[in-house]
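Troubleshooting log. The previous structure file for this entry was overwritten by mistake, so regenerating from the original sequence record. Sequence copied from the archived sheet and checked twice against the printout by T.R.
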Amino acid sequence: MEAAQRLSYQPNSFATALRTQRTGVLGAILRDLGDPFLSGLARALQQAAHEQGFELLLGHADYDAQTTQRQLTLMLNHWKRQNSDEDLA
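Regenerated output below.
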């Protein structure tokens, strides 16, 4: 541990995800980042995620249903892949 500190070692997030089977990523899709309330919500979500050791994957739907669906599908596929990998471990 002393050597890691002396060398300013930073763990590789991809390697950690492989070892723990958790990506540490949360997802949110907001309809309009130009909306002051939703912009503030995005900032609060990111701050809360970071305080708990997570990263936030943020989607901006811009009131478009197809964009929302694509982003949601991407997030769900990631979650499904993550869970199936955990089942194999």
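The chain has a mean pLDDT of 80. Archived copy saved in two places this time.
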